[in-house]
Amino acid sequence: MTGTNRPPIRMVHLGLGAFHRAHQAWYTHQANELSGSRPWGIAAFTGRSPRAAESLTEQDGLYTLLIRDRNEDRAQVISSIVEAVDGNNGARWRELLATPDTAVLTVTVTEAGYHHHGTKGLDYGNAEVDGDIRLLRSSKPATRAARSAPGRIVDGLRARRDAGAGPLALVSCDNLNHNGDVTRTVVLQMATSVDENLAHWIDANVSFVSTMVDRITPATTAADCETASRLTGFPDRAPVVTEPFAEWILAGEFPAGRPAWELAGARFVDDIRPFEERKLWLLNAGHSLLAYTGMIRGYQTIADTMKDPECVELLEELWSDARPVLPFSAAEIDAGLQDLRTRFQNPRIEHQLTQIAADGSIKLRMRSIPVIRRRLAQGLDPGRGQAALIAAWLRCLRSPHIDFHDRGADSLVGRRDDGPAHSSVDERSALALLDSELAKSPELVAAVVLAAERLGAATASTSF
Ligand SMILES: NC(=O)c1ccc[n+]([C@@H]2O[C@H](COP(=O)([O-])OP(=O)(O)OC[C@H]3O[C@@H](n4cnc5c(N)ncnc54)[C@H](O)[C@@H]3O)[C@@H](O)[C@H]2O)c1
Ligand SMILES: O=P(O)(O)OC[C@@H](O)[C@@H](O)[C@H](O)[C@H](O)CO
């Protein structure tokens, strides 16, 4: 493959992981192929390690997307990423954001990457956030490389303001409630801490677009590299595997233009809320429940856990809990759930439970707590499936034998690799980490205690 006739850079991305390449880069590639107008190229920056940038650069940014259904793989070479850059390259980051041609900045930095703490907004007191504020206040641009996502965004937007490059759209593509609003909050708070005038400029010139993004994309394995190379005939070190299903719903303005993503199936709506609630409360909450119950049972992947009738029973309860509080008709919910059962059962998508389980203390605040809150407000019980999800998360946190990362829970259980001291954490304290108000509800605490008993001493061979 060669990189001739590549589209000009008009989009910048932060967080060059698997999902960006399966989703936004694929939508942009499709839009380029289908629209007759000037194509859009992406400069994608890594979030942490430079590895993805190095392997993509060796291939001129080209990579294979393996679209995997339960029977076979279809290989598509994606050409929308024209530059892959190490995230530590602050100079190139500022240069591209200061270019008027750059019209859209997309972001996938995981839930934790926003450093957003509920109503408090930006997580001041966090070493990375505080370090970035000091850095952005003091140092000369040439030597600067902010580390947190809000810090990098503010750094880039300051360069854009200084260059007079005009407005742009900032599009969060992470699984967060109101992801556009959260991004706006943390970026404006960081900017205010650095330079109030900059915060005013951002407020007036940056459109924070909210999105619901959906496409199950597991981490790439060595076997996937071999499959991609076999199907395309070139040695691909950076392929991505994904499912056939893809959905992208967006709400917000694009003041400097955007790719014709609608040609690839994206939808533009006024109110994102129902769509993000449906996605987070059915798909993502379901994933989390399968991750924790599956890890308790010793499974590795979602598809394996879907073969366990008792895990599936809890999943169905979780979905039933969400039904009365979702703003969709019964028929719409039924159709969505039928799709989800099929998607979760795809035996050839090896989505690792430990990846999904990571940072549950942040994810459950969005995937479960709002459902419980809405159920209680409607005079319903908290929901057996919701209680099971929280109890299973807590069970995994308590177990020294189940290995996954949840940095937000360190304060509760201590560092998990320090030994089994955390095994005594009680349900109320765990709930307080998710929602300090709800932790005072005797009904919810009792439901989680009951669910924990139901999970009991379950192992791979005993029932919940
Ligand atoms: N994989 C999926 O199925 C999927 C689907 C929908 C949405 N998403 C969203 O995309 C995110 C990334 O998923 P992925 O599959 O690409 O994961 P990944 O591990 O392949 O990539 C994650 C990317 O985020 C960067 N990152 C991580 N923490 C960061 C931080 N604190 N600050 C800045 N950058 C950081 C990493 O360096 C990497 O570039 C998810 O957390 C989720 O919010 C993923
Ligand atoms: O990517 P995370 O860590 O937010 O969540 C794990 C999965 O639930 C998630 O990636 C889903 O696969 C995805 O949201 C499907 O669109």
TrEMBL record:
Gene3D superfamilies to which the protein is assigned, alphabetical: N-(1-d-carboxylethyl)-l-norvaline Dehydrogenase, domain 2 (1.10.1040.10), NAD(P)-binding Rossmann-like Domain (3.40.50.720)
Domain of life: Bacteria
Record keyword Cell membrane present: no
Entry-linked PROSITE patterns: MANNITOL_DHGENASE
This enzyme's EC code(s): 1.1.1.17
Keywords, alphabetical: NAD, Oxidoreductase
Molecular functions (GO terms): mannitol-1-phosphate 5-dehydrogenase activity
Listed name of the protein: Mannitol-1-phosphate 5-dehydrogenase
Species assigned in the record: Arthrobacter pigmenti
